[in-house]
Amino acid sequence: MSDTVEIGKRLKLAREHAGYASATVAAQSLGMKYPTYAGHENGSRGVVRNAKQYARRYKVSLDWLLRGVGPGPGEADEIISDKAIDIPILTTVSAGALQRDDVIDEAMGTVTVGQLPIGDWIALEVSGESMDRISPPTSIIIVNRADKTLVPNGCYVIADENGDATYKRYRPAPDRFEPVSTNAELEPIFPDNTPTIIGRVRMSILKM
Fold this sequence. Notes:
The protein is of the alpha+beta class. The chain has two domains: about 5-65, Orthogonal Bundle (434 Repressor (Amino-terminal Domain)); about 85-205, Ribbon (Umud Fragment, subunit A). The protein is built from six helices and eight strands; from the N terminus they run αααααβαβββββββ. Strands 2-1-3-4-8-5-6-7 form an eight-stranded mixed beta sheet. Strand 5 (about 155-160) and strand 6 (about 165-170) form a beta hairpin. The longest helix has 15 residues, at about 5-15. The radius of gyration is 18 Å and the shape is globular.
């Protein structure tokens, strides 16, 4: 069996474990044409040029994806980079834009952060007071777009009802996204349907 077919099998396994129900859904999320992505999964096209992108999105090691060695699906969450990485800092933009893989083209700078797990990282400058007990205005939040699993008390960037990005803390029973604010008048968001999760906030950096 050819290497491309074996890589395609691992790619499909990683995609399914990451929660993408079909190759069509994955291709749309990645901003790729379906025939290109499908060719990578079925082994009819080489995957090397897109391998790093897939490894980041599906939270697997590049070695596992290409060679079948190293952390695979569900095993890479706690892998910590031994090097600091430069993460693009974005101003407030729409939630749809935050899902694009070319969003770094709109970066206003970078922030260097170390000791992060494998992920698809962006940084956002916070505006407004809805999370000021955790992240005051002008703070920088570090967001992993590869981590969309809702965890009680986890903080997430989601798409609000207007399609813009908003930053809130998730609480279950009933599902809601709450402000963590000194302003007691701010109210939680109770979504009618599962909202679009841009990514989980894993760090907040306070500007001094």
